[in-house]
Amino acid sequence: MSLEKIKQELLTSYRSDGGINHLDGPNLPSQEAIDVLAQDLIHLLFPGFFQHNEYSRERLEDLLEARLGQLHRTLTREVEKCVLSDRQSKVRGTAEGEAEAILAAFPVIRRLLQTDVEAAYEGDPAAKSFDEIILAYPCILAISLQRIAHVAYEQDIPLLPRMLTEYAHRQTGIDIHPGAQIGSHFFIDHGTGVVIGETTTIGSHVKLYQGVTLGAKSFKVDPDGKLVKGIKRHPDIEDNVTIYAGATILGGETRIGKDSIVGANVWLMESIPPNSIAYYKGENLVVRSRKDREKAEG
Q: Are 31 and 65 in contact (CB under 8 A)?
């Protein structure tokens, strides 16, 4: 096949099949630009941790002013692309205002992230310092970007929230949808293979291990066979829950009660009450009160 024929067939495909950037219209945000933005947002959360240049207290205010200005301009540009490229966008404010609202959430996000770092330090006997956790633990990058993306998700900004969390997914192997609601003191140990769905809610002081899935049990369809979107599909995890490696918890009506433990490789599609432990004994799933087990072991 000649190059001319290949060109003409590709042009036909572009016209009929889509999958290209918007021609003669607003440009889509590029993944490369969002990746750089994600890194810059992390620098704003943890100044001096990931840059080559040294920070000093004397220069901090000036450096922060410059970084905020640059980030506001970049965010405004990328938010504008996201909004203009999505005809169904629900954003009502200006791109500049939406960008400012994201940055305004950073003090609250930093306070939450401090609790996440504390949870990692208290939850991992191998952790030597808070600095090590911020620099080297994949969960901090994944949780940080998810908390930022969740703010944009709540503002109904299209594309940007998912692109931010997908950057974290590629870097860490941890896939947290920006719609998930996560409380304080959240720790994901090791992290690889963790999947947390859009309508998941997670309380405070929750600890997950690698390979945990908080997913959907099934997908409802309308009379035309199309997926119904915007409904509760993923589980609720209450406070002080630990979920061990490889556990799978599915369904929008599934709730893991507070102070519970879900053992490794457990498959759950129904709720368990507070203060329970779920584990396999042979091939059978056992759900029992933690107090009863503690008495038996005592």
A: no
Q: Do 168 and 54 have their domain in common?
A: yes
Residue 184 lies in a domain: no
Q: Are residues 201 and 161 in the same domain?
A: no
Beta-carbon neighbour count of residue 51 at 10 Å?
Answer: 13
Name the strand (E) or helix (H) holding 287.
strand 284-289
Query: What is residue 202's three-state secondary structure?
Result: strand
> 34 and 165: one domain?
yes
pLDDT block averages, 10 residues each, the chain of length 298: 85 76 68 93 84 65 88 94 81 90 96 97 96 95 98 96 97 98 98 97 98 91 82 97 98 98 97 97 92 63
**CA dist., res. 215 & res. 229, Å (int):** 15
The b-or-e profile of 269-298 (16+ CB within 10 A means b, else e) is eebbebebbbbeeeeeeebeeeeeeeeeee
CATH classification at residue 160: 1.10.3130.10
Beginning with the edge strand found earlier in the chain, give each strand of the sheet holding 181-182 in spatial order.
181-182, 201-202, 236-237, 255-256
Q: Tell me the residue range of the domain where 278 lies.
A: 193-298
Backbone angles phi, psi at 64, to 5 degrees: -65, -40
Could you tell me which of 208, 223, 226, 105 has the C-alpha nearest to residue 161?
Answer: 105
Q: Are residues 157 and 72 in the same domain?
A: yes
